[in-house]
Amino acid sequence: MNANLYYAYFDVDQNGLDEDSFFEIELTKEDVLSVPKCGQADPFIKDILQVERIQKQLAQISDAQLRGVLWGYGTWDNKELSIREDNEMRILWLAVGDIREENPAWK
To answer: What is the overall mean pLDDT for the chain?
Structure first.
């Protein structure tokens, strides 16, 4: 693992038994800190989505994997989960939050 990279881990089946259901999102500290802790995050998440290394990671994740993880949160319905771009934004937002939570000393 690169010391300058931080990881958010997601598992579609929530129990880690299916290797194909697991994926990770790799972000830098700068990526994470570019998103505000509260308030509207969409413009900042959209900026991260434009980064080539992020696009490459997301291209490796199937639509079914994204929907499966997001469905597990119980926050979005099937219609909302039908749009890949929105799901990519959601998973990045969750990844930023997970990484920030693991690093509380970051301002």
So the answer is: 90
